[in-house]
Structures are given as structure tokens and as C-alpha cells.
């Protein structure tokens, strides 16, 4: 071995030790820098012609472990998903209040029923009437406020979704832009760890927003994909776009998150979102907030229906001069079809004495006036037949889809059911069905038992359209389907059009009309497809409710709590509160007395009455009392919130552990770096001595010449 080769070997050792010391010093100086990943210097033996020729410094890399990194990224995504969901759902849960708080929704309902119970013994008290109305107003307003707040939380989620999509694009671009300088550094054998460190931090931030897989390429660059394969950074990366729909309402149909590929191809990105903050926001917006809103509206509308049933079976004292029902969105003939049993229209003077009684027997189609047979009636001539029977003491009318009943001569009106055979249709008495004496009203349909049969006219204009949206259980858009109202006029024709597997929704589920005239959709699959309504330009009978409003399709049923309000005539005058009942069996004296609180007793009893609830939210439907349903709703919302908090806490614990393990591997250990510092200091000194020895040998040789 020549002296020159010894000199070169020493020089290579000197340079390698210097490089390693530079790496160690960089690591030590960044020991407390957040997100810093420890540098690792490599070295290889240099060999020429089979002989050792010193050492070469290799590529400087980062201390990474793909398994620990993958685990940390997944845990971070899961933690961010749980946190995003809990933070917003907790806002919804908090609106229901503490069950020990008298101002909470469910306690307000109990307060109303308690006031009605006390009114049975003190029905004539103005203060008691005002207490009932004040409590009921608070209850209805609180239900509407919570329902509106749920939509506000969904609106917040919608805004955050748009923001997260923008952040994903920005971070993915930053990651992709750093690939080029990193690859150049690898190709040139220079130090590219600064860019790699920045890129790793961007990857960590991206993993909070969406779950990702990272592939380290041979040139040092990375490719970032979703677990389902969509490329976010690297060759063939997509660009995301989202146009938020705001403000958000219960029937809002949201647009898709669109992924546009490098060649301009666009597709729905929702199916690629498996975890991360974006997933938590989508779950909150499309699933759990909707479930709470649905169940809240089912409770509030059922409470209103039961209260109205009792109020319609009762009367104010003195009786009002007129009663006007709700908008039926039906013809009078359609509304009367299917009634059975017997009801009574009563004209009563201001002292409570019966002036005229018209008995309507729907089963036999016969009328009686003051106990004397008065001939038949038909649905087609119902108004004329009843007005003839009233003989000028009062009139009924049907205008703008509403039934009205009024008295003349300063008298009042009341409707009383036959005790032995009360009138009924879809489980409601005559007055309740038409809403003549409703205590709680709404400007949209809140009960979807229309009473229509398969042979009934559907009542919509042929050619008008409804655009339905179909989503899977994860809230991902599946299809938009336009349904044109068929030229055939029956409900059977309409249901067949909806269920058509080519032009309708038959590929995704089945519509059916039950015996009460409720039109419902049952999606295929488990979990089943969900139905929304994107557009609806239909109108029943030309000026009535749209198809989706009339049957409660899409998000219409979820908004019912926002539309309930106390009848303004009753709210303005508590004397119109119906706390008594008409006693037609009384043969002498008044049939209606102010001290009678039996109507209040009917209303007070609704809390313990079994009600057939529809499936809504977390509740599967079926018989339950209002009190039990309220308790279940409170418990279910609380359970979801508690589970969400536990999931967040658990996910954060797992994420912290995963990050700690990764940090322990890739972070700077000061003790290890000090050992390396000492080692390379000694190596540097040894290489220097080798060079000095070679120099001394040169000097000796030169001295011999």
C-alpha cells in the first residue's frame, strides 16, 4: 500500500467524521424542536481493485419507521374524527338541558300537563288558564329553538367541511411540491432532510383531516393515498372541491365533494373518506344530528296531536262563535271519505244551553236534528245538507281546503262525539281530523295520515317533477332521480311511478301506502338507502302542499318542531281555551258549564296515554307514552354524547401512545447523540493522526533524496 493511499484513506475518514459530526450537531441543536425528525448519516467502505480505500459518506436520511408512522397516522385520523364529532354533538346535547332543570324541554312538557291537572279543579280561573298557555308557549318555543339550533350546528359542520376540503388541497399541494427538491437531493447525494422534515409535518397535519397511507418512493419522494386508493399527493393526484350549501335546513340536500383527476375527470370523493376530521363532520351533519332532529320532531308533533285530540273533544266556556280548521290539502269529498261513527254539531248560547243539535251518522249516512231524523247526506252535497239541517242557527263551509263552523245570533259552536260510537278516520274524530278546535297549529302538514286510498286521486298535476336524492348509510350520494307525476290519476299510479326500477326509485327501495294514507319509503340494503328531496315543484290541487310536504318525505318530517305554534286566537284570549266538555246527555239546563274541568283532565291525561310513534331517529317506533318517549329521547341523546366523549378520550389516548412511540424512535435522544459525538470526535482525531503519520513518512522519504 502506497503512502498516498494511506493519506487518502485518512482524508476520507476525516471527511466522514466531519459529516457525521455535522449531523450529530444538527440533531443536538434541535433536541427541543417540535416535529423535528432525527437525521441519520450512513457510510460505506470504499474499495478499489479489491483493496480497502477508506470510507464514503452516504445519503443523509431521516429516522423513520413506516410501521410506527402508519399506526400514528391512523390513530391521529381516528382521534380527529372523534373530536370533531363530539365537539359539535355536545352542542346539540347541551340544548336539551339538565333533567333537573325546570326550564329543560321535557320538564316544560311535564309542567304543562301538571297545570292542566290542576285546572280540572279550577277551570274557570283566568290565572290558571294563563298559566297553562304560558307553560305551553314555553314548551313549544323551546322545541322550536332546539330544532333550529340543531340545524345551526349542521350549518357549522357544513362550513367546516368546506374549510377542511380547502386545507386538504393546500397540504396535499405542499407535500407534492416538496417531492421534486427531495428527489433532486437524493439523485445528487446531497442532504434533503430539511425538505423531508417539512414534508413529514405536512403529512402529520393532513392525517388529522383525512385518513391516509404514505408510500416512500425509491427517489425519496412520497405518494399519499387514501386507504381506498385515491391519490392526494404524488403522480396522478386529485384536486378536491366543495361548494357548501348554506344556510342549512332540515330538508337541505348537500352537494358532493368532487375529486378532479389530472385529466379533468371528476367523481364523488365521499366514498374515500374513512376517518379524520372530515369524516367526523360528515357523520355529525348527515347522521346523528338528523336522527336527533327527527326524533325531536316526532315527539313534539305527537305531543301536539294528542293535545289537539283532547282539545277538539272539549269546548271553551262560553263557546266560540266560530271554529276554523287546518288546511287539509284535500277536497271535501276526499276528507269525508272513510269516516265512520257519529258526531254532533252543536249550537249553544252564551249561557251554555243547547240551541240546535245536528247528529251526523257517517256509518248510515243519515242526519238527525234535535233527535229527529232529517234525511240522508252525501259527501258531494255535505255543506248544503248540513246547512239545511242547521236551519239558519249556524253554517259550515269549506274554502281554501279548510272546514269552518260558525253560529248566528251571538251563539257559539261546539263539536261533540257520540259516546257510544264516536266518529273516526285514521284514528281521529271529526273535529280533530279537520283541526276545527286545534290548540297547536302549524303552517305545514305535521301529520301524514292523509286518509287517501290506492284508488284515490293523487291530486298532483301530471308532468310536474320531484327530484329525489339517494344516499347510502354513510351519507354518500348515490343518485339523483327525477320523478314526473304520472298522467294516471290514482295513488296506485303514483306509487307505481315512484317504484319503477328504470325511471323511478325501484333500484333503491320501495314506496308503499298504508291504510291510513301514509306514504313511506323503505330503502334496500343493510344499512338501508336514505331518501332526500332535492327539488319539488309539485302542488296538491294546484295551490296546496307539495308532494314531499304532504307526505313528509325527505327532511320535511324533521322540521315539524319548528312549525308548531299555539292558535293565536287562543293565545290572545285565554277564554278560548277548551277546558270543559259538552254534555249532550243533559236533558234540562246547560250542556256546557264554566266550572267543568273535564276537558282539562282529558288533556292532562295525554302524558300517560299510549301513542303509536313512527320510526324516527334512534327510536324504532311503536307504542309508548309521551313521558316514556321523552325519557328515551333524553337518554338516547345523552348516551350518544357520552359514547362520543368516551370514543374521543380513547382515540386521543391511542393517538398519544402511537405518537409517543414514533417520537421515541424518530426523535432526538440526547444521550445517544452525545455518544455519537464522542465516537466521531475520536474518529476525527484518529484520521488526523493517520494523515500526520503519512506526512511524516513523506518527510522521511524526501529527506533521503
Architecture overview:
With 705 residues, the protein is an alpha+beta fold. Among the domains are: 3-63 and 670-704; 465-551, no CATH class. A hairpin with a 5-residue loop joins strand 20 and strand 21 (477-484). 43% of the residues are buried. The mean pLDDT is 91.
Structural class: alpha+beta
Number of strands: 27
Distance from N terminus to C terminus (CA atoms, Å) equals: 21 Å
Computed CA radius of gyration, to the nearest angstrom: 39 Å
| Mean pLDDT across all amino acids | 91
> Which percent bin holds the helix content?
40-55%
- Supply the number of helical segments: 15
Shape: elongated
Lateral arrangement of strands in the main beta sheet: 15-14-13-12-18
Secondary structure topology:
Layout: H1 3-29, E1 39-40, E2 43-48, E3 51-57, E4 61-62, H2 66-95, H3 105-119, H4 126-188, H5 193-209, E5 213-216, E6 222-225, E7 231-233, E8 239-241, E9 258-260, E10 266-268, H6 277-312, E11 322-324, H7 332-336, E12 342-348, E13 354-361, E14 366-369, E15 372-376, H8 382-390, E16 394-399, E17 402-407, E18 412-417, H9 430-434, E19 440-442, E20 465-471, E21 477-484, H10 491-498, E22 509-513, E23 519-523, E24 530-536, H11 547-551, E25 564-566, H12 568-572, H13 598-604, E26 610-613, E27 622-625, H14 626-666, H15 670-704
Antiparallel strand pairs: 1-4, 2-3, 5-6, 6-7, 8-9, 9-10, 11-17, 12-13, 12-18, 13-14, 14-15, 16-17, 19-25, 20-21, 20-24, 22-23, 26-27
Helix pairs in contact: 1-15, 2-4, 2-5, 2-6, 2-14, 3-4, 3-13, 4-5, 4-6, 6-13, 6-14
